[in-house]
Sequence to fold (826 residues):
Amino acid sequence: MILTAAAVGVVAILPGAVLFRLPVLDRARRASLPAEERLFWQIVISLAWSIAVVLALAALGAYRFDRLVVANLSLVIVAVALARGRLWYAGGAARVSATALVPLALVGLAAARFFPSSEYIIGGKDPGGYVNQGVLISTRGSLVVREPEVAALTLPTRTLFFNSHEREEYFDNRFMGFFLQDPDTGQVVGQMPHLFPASIAIAYDLGGVRGGLSTVGLWAVLGVLAVYFVGARILGRPAAFAASVLLPLNLIEVWFARYPNAEVVIQALLFAALLALARAHQDGDPFFSPVAGVLGGLLIFTHIQALLALSAIGAAVALAWIVDGRRMRLAFLAPLAAGAVLGWVYWSGPMRASFWRPLTYLRNLPGGAVTAAIVIGLAALGLALWLRRSGASRVRAAIPVGLSAALAVLAVYAWWLRAPGGKLTDWDAAALRTFVDVYALPLGMIAALAGLITVVPRRFWRDPAFVLTGAAFAVFLFYKLQVVPEHLWLARRFLPVILPSTLLLAAAAALGTWDQRPRGPQVVRAILGAIVLIVLGQQYRIQAAPVVPHVEFKGVVAHVDDLARRFTDRDLVIVESRDASDVHVLAVPLAYMHGRRVLWLENAVPDKALFEAFLADALRRYDRVFFLGGGGTDLISPAVRATPVTYVQLHAPSFLVTPWNDYRAGIRPYKFDYSLYRLERGPTTSGGFALDIGFEDDLSVVRFGDKEMTDGRTFRWTSPQSFVSVRGLTGREREIALVMHDGGRPAAAAPASVEVFLGEVPLGRIAVGSGFREYVRPVTPAALQAALAAPGRQIRLVSSTWKPSAYDDSPDRRDLGVMVDRVEIR
Fold:
């Protein structure tokens, strides 16, 4: 415990504390900052340094935690030597005051709302990608890893798992969220930008899996503090405190503070960068110029949308230069330019598979449009310079008024009038309405618009980057969300900038912008405004109530630990394909958190001759070969034998996913039902064919639903077209028997019917009724011989389907056929 605490200090406090206290760049000015802000900066600077070191070492393939500690201590030693013992403020620092209780209270509130973190270690989506990339940096020390089980595949058998996309950016998916760049060497890189994973790597080194998962909550707490300090500087402490209390009460912030994502990192780094930029450019503190530049450079490695923030910051700096004559500081520009150069190398190099869309867009921009944009930009610059010389004061007054008026008009249009049409989708047209109706709530939006109109014209020049960044994110993202339109997934677009900016403006409108004790009318306004904010906070608290006690995928960490213990690093685990079920998401933590040898089938019907050759080679390389699946894979052949090892049911709690126009908060069980088989060479026992559907059938069915049970019977739902792999026939069989149930489909749905094929020979259509009953269809000798002669022996079931969500309030959007309990050929 003591060593861990010391390591945390070396990583998160000591480097920043020493750099902040160096007797350079007018230390007295920053020493006069409130004690709580000084501590905030020491933590931010320490984290920025530590993460930069991790990224640099991992880019070289040389990261280890002890090397990070050495780098940090080396920095401290050099800084102490340069300071020559002058690291103490010598009485010139502002004392700790009662204002320090404000961020302390915010930390307590945020911690209570943001922990425990979700157990999202599985693959398939961004959160699991971030976590597993962080673990890879910790355990393998590199951004790009090489996997021997991939490189060992022979060229023919490689197609069972990987197939070229004929793109220069990457070869194929290693797993969802991880790109296989070179199958010959097994070179793999995660598709998520690596700054957030770098911080996860540090936390994983300090606290294991739980430490890594908690990283997102720690970033969220830092983000709340960054929002508070930015708001305190622009709007005053009361409004900043109120907005920063509303932030951890809001559903969006609570959800993503527990759910691994880069947006909370952007929120923390961006608001810290905005504060540093304002301290440097508006307040004239030279120390914060390089701090702002470094933080801006680091943002490039968080998410592609960070480029939007940097564009807005650049516009703000240019505007301050044009209007107020504030020149861009080289100490700000140099680290930002270095970050941009390194970022280009990073995004166009190891991350090119994730960056190809923006690159393609940039390469295909019409030359005329680019020329026109340059001409318009130069003309606007010339006009601004002319206006500055002819009437700078008028320009200075007009810009914030015009900007706030334009934003208010756009907000009213998007809230009340915008409608889909042409290439404009319904969810993009309703983006602002969704934000207001579901997340910010109308009262919050009305207050924010009031703040936009009354506060921005008066406070714009205190921090133009804050206003322009909020405007850029709002205009760009409310125009096109650029995200899958599902709750709560789409809300991530509102998290980094839009939500905190909205709350800051709303609080400023309600309470006013003051720091000293209010007098006269200010007291009345503050009381009335506080009532409004209390009502809004209560609405947020009620709205987020289902999320606060919820832990996404609770129990998955322990479950994957138990699963991994079944294998050694001398075993190979084959996981069924993505189109069979969601079991493939377990492959990622098995491979990257536990170091197991894992391969992922390309599809649910692999070439059996190739798989036989692969298995023969794999059994020479590995002690044992296993198959993990639950959705159905046609894998067994006369030369492949599968022995059941175990059947597992895990129902982890998961928040309900609904379309953008269907918000229903609630928890559902996310099912991980799968079986584990040991694969060996040798013939399967023959003597007829009978299959209990839903029980040890994973290697015999394709395109069925998940395993389920009712009234002691196991079953699966058919899809529009489902398949049963047949083996063990003797040639004397004369009928097929299927035990089926219509599933209780509503009367308004199409009647349940199933057309049965043996191979390509139709055996007739069956009208399936209520209750499990046996339905028999005769098989002629000719049909049986045709089936035996076919390369793939299978029964094909073509079902009429219905969708539960089309008939009631069920969230089930599956196309369901009928329930099948048993299939037998006799």
Notes: The longest helix spans residues 367-417. The domain at 687-826 is CATH 2.60.120.260 (Jelly Rolls). The radius of gyration is 31 Å. The chain has three domains: 97-117+197-544, 553-684, 687-826.
